[in-house]
Amino acid sequence: MERAGGRDWAQTQAADRMARAMQEVARAVPDPEAAGGLLALAEFVTRRTT
Fold this sequence. Notes:
Layout (H helix, E strand, L loop, with lengths): L5 H23 L3 H16 L3
Helix pairs in contact: 1-2
């Protein structure tokens, strides 16, 4: 999987979806503090290494 680029592809997909999710949350919840916990959790899940 590593040689075929699977990890890089998955990381790129996760980053793209995270960016889109952050945009949608910002539209739905204009107060950044109210959405802070949700965004922090999403970032943790998409950026973890293990």
